[in-house]
Amino acid sequence: MKAMVLTGHGGLDKYVWHEDWPRPEPSPMEALIRVGACGLNNTDVNTRSGWYSKTVSEATTGGAYASVADDDPTWGGAPITFPRIQGADAVGEVVAVGEGADPALIGKRVMTNGWCRDWSDPENMKKAKYFGSEVDGGFAEYTKTDIRDMAVVTSDLSDAELATFSCSYSTAEGMLSRAQVTAQDTVLVPGASGGVGGALVQLAKLRGARVIAMASDAKHGDVSRLGPDRILPRAPDDLRAALGDENVTVVADVVGGPYWPMLIDILERGGRYTCSGAIAGPMVTLDLRTLYLRDLTFTGSTVIPLHVFGDLVSYIERGDIQPVLAATYPLRDLREAQQAFIDKRHVGNIVVIP
After folding, report:
1. Which tens digits make up the pLDDT trace of 65-75?
2. Buried b vs exposed e over 144-157: b needs ≥16 C-beta within 10 Å?
3. Number of domains composing the chain
4. Could you give the CA distance from residue 57 to residue 69 in angstroms, rounded to a whole number?
5. 160 shares its domain with 180
6. How far apart are CA 214 and CA 38, in angstroms?
7. Does residue 311 lie in a domain region?
8. Which domain, by its residues, includes 293?
């Protein structure tokens, strides 16, 4: 099969195109999927570059770093093996199943769940693996996954549109779940023009919350179509003044970086900060007095609760959320597609087509 194969940590040159890569064979309880489309995500960039390593303290650049530790360069803090096929957001058609899997799945269109569980202990977050990281993913003509780590999706959306959902939207839903967002909240979303940011806007609105998006002025038109109640500039000099009389109870952030203290300073007493990324930089300054004197709660969100993926599929099938498909590229042009993703040339998600 054709596949874009990651050969190690480093720059985009670490991707190597193959037209004769071995096609996977489904093991017991697995399905073989002919990939119709696969989305790009920050996890692909960060794992490839080694940004997750604690030796890296700068913003996500997408380039190679001078020093990456051998023992912690991935989301889980442990090495992965190369070669590796990345791509967490695979959508396609089941063409074969392994022993124990229902043959009726053959011919069904499915979407993969990025989180691959140990189904003998599915609630154990320590045993979770990530599709396209610890196991091969969807940057190929074919991929395979446990049938319990995918879902049949009934929708008029195209494969490319469906491939925008799994990683970005499940990440966003996991963040909102951890922060216990309700209709009584006002949620501030930095980086609202990105895949997770746009998902946060839609999913917080779905919960009935008031949503204030932050994005560069040039992207306000695109962000407005996601339905936020207000849009602010990407980084106002005086965030409190820009907010006016808004009472922000939740900050849902994947940006981090030097602006981070301003986000914390505007949280209401008893407010919650939830985080699933740090694309502008992982090292931030916290005044602990702000944390405890204002009764704030901080939550990190990576491995999502089991119910989140099923909830996401239900939202899609009901039309409660909409895809934000920015661009599609042929899989062979993955390097160009990922550079466009890194440069933030588009608003929303980028998808590759095998």
Report:
1. 887 887 878 88
2. bbbbebbbebebeb
3. 2
4. 12
5. no
6. 27
7. no
8. 171-300
* Residues 201 and 69 grouped into a single domain: no
> What is the enclosing helix (H) or strand (E) of 166?
helix 166-178
Provide the token pair at 45: 């960039």
Q: Which two tokens stand for residue 162?
A: 């469906």
Summarised one tens digit per residue, pLDDT across range 235-284 is: 999 999 999 999 999 999 999 999 999 999 999 999 999 999 999 999 99
Residues 204, 96, single domain; the answer is: no
Domain check: are 177 and 240 in the same one?
A: yes
DSSP one-letter string for 318-338: HT-S---EEEEEEGGGHHHHH
DSSP string, 15-38: EEEESSPPPP---TTEEEEEEEEE
User: What is the spatial distance between Cα 38 and Cα 166, in angstroms, rounded to a whole number?
Assistant: 10
Residue 236 lies in a domain: yes
- What is the C-alpha to C-alpha distance for residues 62 and 67, in angstroms, rounded to an integer? 14
Residues 249 and 330 in one domain: no
- 97 with 187, same domain? no
Q: How far apart are CA 26 and CA 183, in angstroms?
A: 44
Question: Are residues 49 and 113 part of one domain?
Answer: yes
Place of tokens 């090292």: 283
Between strands 30-39 and 3-6, the pairing is: unpaired
